[in-house]
Each structure stands twice: as structure tokens, then as C-alpha cells.
Amino acid sequence: MSAILMNAFVYDGSRRLKQVRVGVPKIVSDEVLIKVEAASLNPVDWKAYALKALLRRFVAADSPLIPATDVAGEVVDVGAAVEKFRAGDKVVAHLNFKGGGLSEYAVAKEALTALRPEGVSAVQACGLPIAGETAYVALTKSAGIALDGSGPRKNILVTAASGGVGQYAVQLAKIGNHHVTATCGSRNLDLVKSLGADEVVDYRSPEGAALRSPSGKTYDAVIHCAAAVPWSIFERNLNDAGGIVVDLTPGPAAWLTYALKKLTSAKKRIVPMILFPKDDRELKILLTLMAEGKLKTIVDSIHPLDNAEEAWRKGIDGHATGKIIVQP
Ligand SMILES: NC(=O)c1ccc[n+]([C@@H]2O[C@H](COP(=O)([O-])OP(=O)(O)OC[C@H]3O[C@@H](n4cnc5c(N)ncnc54)[C@H](OP(=O)(O)O)[C@@H]3O)[C@@H](O)[C@H]2O)c1
């Protein structure tokens, strides 16, 4: 396959993209080659650009720097040690730090690839790897919330509920039968309500800026998907018996507060979280929920690969409603 050329987009040396023709990537023994049917963008794709550019000088310096980590498509080739997949399988994959999704073909580790159940489209599935998994891990592992109805009903706040991660966090929390307060912009209040949120607050209103629940609830958990908020605002909204903020956008202040609260064994805590998927466990759970009709991807927009630059700019603007998707 390596002699065949494909269309792809690479970082052009700044945060912009440049269209190129490059060789279809080669796989090693534990990898699958996927013909991409849909890829979704995440803020990490542009936020991590500088770090990726730096690391590429030392690791895989000869391979093109193609962004996008989340793809769905069809397996066209498998490495010698691959057992779970064969050519023709419809899959979804997390390409991890290497990226490669803004192209016609992408290479994924077998361990981070999952079969797409019948009835789950490539567009719906490709939203899941980073955004869906982050929402799932934040709720379950970081905040310790049961989503199978086995635990007590919790009060949960999801900030930026109209975004890629927030939309899944609201739906997953409701699958677990929890009470959900959500923040988003005024144009998305109805949409977020339709995802199941019990109360929705405009983040630009005084109540939204203060993260207050309209019904006066305090939160057992906050899944924080928006920009930094001072700890004092979180603290006054957390349950006195023990509330936790899972911070998906942690800056230095969040890390410092995390350390202080841990040292003092405080009941109200903040936990910075960064997703590092090791296997396909969460992806499979999310795909099953999707196949059962319990979870969906809100799609902001779909862009042809030739127009990936437009999708990229839209993502950087930071006002997507759901996922931005690119299709070869
Ligand atoms: N730690 C991790 O492992 C991890 C994983 C995934 C994502 N993240 C981070 O989590 C954040 C969210 O990611 P995402 O993919 O959901 O982003 P996204 O899709 O780009 O989020 C855009 C949405 O957020 C809304 N929004 C922006 N500021 C808001 C605020 N202060 N309050 C309420 N809503 C607000 C926007 O609404 P308007 O258009 O109305 O402004 C828009 O609908 C990003 O910073 C991302 O880097 C971290």
C-alpha cells in the first residue's frame, strides 16, 4: 500500500493546515489500516500542535504531521499479530497522540479499535473516542458515579454541555438516572434540555456565571468542560458532605488546589483529568449504548476532506454545537 498516494492535511508549520498527497501509511504487527469514512475534531488537535511538532523532531520525524485522533471507517489491512479484525470490518478507533485522521487512510492500534455495531454510522461513531470516552471516564472513574443504576442518585453539573464532551456527559449521566444541571449558550438551551438535562442555564447569565442550580441544588459532582473557573465558585456550589469537580481543562491553579485539597483531605475536591486510553473498553460500552439508541452524537457540521481547513477554523473558534466532522 505504501506506493499508493492519498489526500491528507498536515499542520503547515503554524496552526493552519495544508493539503498534501502523501503515501498511504504502513502498518506494523499490532496495527490496522483503516479507510477513513469519517473523522471528528477535538480541541486537543490544535492545542497540542506545538508539543506534537516538537516531539516529531525526535520521534517519527519522517512521517507527516496529520491531525485528528478520532476516526471511523473500514479495515483494509491488518498486521501479522492482529486477531480481532480483518479486512472489511467496520470500526471506530482512537489514533492516540500520533493522529492521522484528516486523510483517506489512517493507522490504528488494534487495542484502541472497536467494531462498529450494525446501525451505528461512521459519522455517529467517530465522535466517541476522545469526547465520549472523556465524558465516560470523568463520570465513572474520576467522579465515582455509577451509570448502571446501582448507586445513589447524584446531583451533577455539566459545564459547556453543548460541546463535544458535554453533550455525552449529559446523556450518560441521565442514562444513570442522575439529576443533571447543565450550562451552555442561550441558543443551545433547548438542545441541551432535549438531551435530558433537568435544568439548563445560560453561561452568560449571572446565575450561569455563578454555576448556580436554578432549583438551589448543590452538586455531588461537576464535570467541568469549560474554561477555568475560580475554585471559590465551585466550592460554594458543592455538596458539603463531599463534592468533586472533575476538571477537564486544568490550569496551574486547578493543579495547586488539587494538591492542597488532597493534602488536607478536604471533603470538597477538584481532580484534574487528562484522558489516556489504554484499551477499547470504554469505546465498546459507548458503542453498545449507541446501538441500543440510548446515546447519540450531536453533529455540529460535516465537511468534505477537501474543506478540512474550514472545519479546523470552526473548531478553533470554540463555538461548535456537538462534533465537527470531516469526511473523505
Ligand atoms: N482532559 C481531557 O482529557 C480532555 C478531553 C477532551 C476535551 N478536553 C477539553 O475540554 C474542553 C471541552 O472540549 P469539547 O470538545 O467539548 O469543546 P468544544 O466542543 O469546542 O466546546 C464548544 C462548546 O462549548 C460551549 N462553551 C464555551 N465556553 C463555555 C462556558 N464558559 N460555559 C458553557 N459553555 C461554553 C460553546 O458554546 P457557545 O458557542 O454558546 O459559546 C460551544 O457549544 C476543551 O477545553 C478540551 O480541550 C479535555
CATH class bucket of the largest domain: Alpha Beta
Number of domains: 2
Which hetero ligands occur in this complex? NADP nicotinamide-adenine-dinucleotide phosphate
Order of helices and strands: EEEHHEEEEHHEHEHEHEHEHEHEHE
Helix content: 25-40%
**What's the end-to-end separation, in Å?**
18 Å
- Tell me about the largest β-sheet: 7 strands, mixed
Number of strands: 15
The CATH topology of the largest domain is given as Quinone Oxidoreductase, Chain A, domain 1
Radius of gyration: 20 Å
β-strand amount:
25-35%
Bulk shape? globular
Second-tier CATH architecture of the largest domain: Alpha-Beta Complex
Low-confidence stretches: none
Domain Enoyl reductase (ER): 13-326
Protein name: Enoyl reductase (ER) domain-containing protein
GO molecular function, one term: oxidoreductase activity
InterPro entries: ADH-like_N, Chloroplast_QOR, ER, GroES-like_sf, NAD(P)-bd_dom_sf
Give the arrangement of secondary structure elements.
Layout: E1 5-11, E2 17-23, E3 31-40, H1 43-47, H2 49-56, E4 70-78, E5 90-94, E6 105-109, E7 113-115, H3 122-125, H4 128-142, E8 155-158, H5 164-175, E9 179-184, H6 189-194, E10 199-202, H7 206-209, E11 221-224, H8 231-237, E12 244-247, H9 252-263, E13 269-272, H10 281-291, E14 299-304, H11 308-317, E15 323-327
Parallel strand pairs: 8-9, 8-11, 9-10, 11-12, 12-13, 14-15
Antiparallel strand pairs: 1-2, 3-4, 3-6, 3-15, 4-5, 5-7
The protein binds NADP nicotinamide-adenine-dinucleotide phosphate.
